[in-house]
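Journal club prep, notes for RB
We'll compare a predicted complex against what the paper describes. Inputs for the fe (ii) ion case:
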Amino acid sequence: MTLSRATLAGASATAAAAAAILIRREQTRRATERFAAAALETLLKAIDANDADTGAHVRRVATYALILADAADLSEHDCKSIERVALFHDIGKIHEAIEDIVREPNSLSPGERRAIAKHPTVGASVLEPLRVFYPDLPDGVMAHHERWDGKGYPRGLKGRRIPLSARVVAIADTFDAITHGRPYRSGQTAAVARRALIDGRGLQFDPELVDLFLFPPVYARVTRAEHALEEWKPPVQKRRTGREEDESVPDITFRWRPGRSASRERQSSDPMPQTAR
Ligand SMILES: [Fe+2]
């Protein structure tokens, strides 16, 4: 059987249309990825701009957390989720210079303690708009001061009810809080941090994760990373490239005024010119 010329032309037009759809879909996926990465990098830069020490701290915590996640053989998805929770776990402190209760429990007034206890909730609320893209992020941040024995805050979650990302970050956060100095005290040795993790095993921390963190080959990776990160400086980031010339970024509507959307504003008699909004 031979196919007519018209049939062949029709088949090749269909194939070309399918290819065009696939290319468009791939371009959209790449643009979405770049937009999401830019949003997270902007958040991280806001942390750096507010307090460079916190910027360095969250990067060290993310480094240790990823070593532990890798040792636990977690999926790529879980590792990415842990990385995000580690980097943004203290974003609820961005507005004021408060320190973790776990770091200096005796020098805080009751008012300071109450303020500190709010930072996981504040952080989760800051990150809430990203839940649609990263459903685990606000909950992981909210839970990073929960304790394995249920005596943590803000919700008193216990054991495996605490999100895995928060259990991993709690260990990495404590290791860094002890080994790196604060304005009110100098950093202590890795041996002191190791002792604190052993003491908190099954009380403050997930016991299996502590065992894995202190497993000699894993712990050796952590201490090597600690030395490598000692002299951390913010990298000079090159301008993001890869945007195609014909790729336009839509003028999106986003929620910044209570109860009003940009489309409703356009219909209103608000005299403010659109460019000033
Ligand atoms: Fe914290």
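Talking point for the session: The chain is about 55% helix and 0% strand.
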